[in-house]
Amino acid sequence: VSTQSTGWKNHHLSRFGIFVRKHDSNAKFKTFKVDILLNSKPVDALSVIVHSSKAMARGKAICEKLKNSLSRHMFEIAVQAALGSKIIARSTISAFRKNVTAKCYGGDITRKRKLLEKQKEGKKKMRMIGNVSVDQETLMSVLKE
To answer: With contact defined as beta carbons under 8 Å apart, do 75 and 130 qualify?
Structure first.
């Protein structure tokens, strides 16, 4: 089995980073690099190269495994599989939710709305500055098939 690039110029301009592999029967196979993104930040350790026919299924499987193995945070975490700049699979880990309206009994609904809006703004700030770390055990469990 020999691996052949589509040429430096073509590969450099290529949108998806296509690799062409030749087997002994001279049949060509297209493989793509599937990147995994956590909160829109790529995780290089989880990137895989797969055949074009299995890219979507593999990306969806990795997203689901990550969703089940990562712990929840105070903010929502988006787990995405991307093929170049195109998102092919997405899974969302929901955030912990504190009951901020527990101390408001009856009365006017506007106070409850105000507290919920304040909580929503705080979650938005946390999502922007929050980092998600993936430990070694989680990486190994996700990469096992």
So the answer is: yes
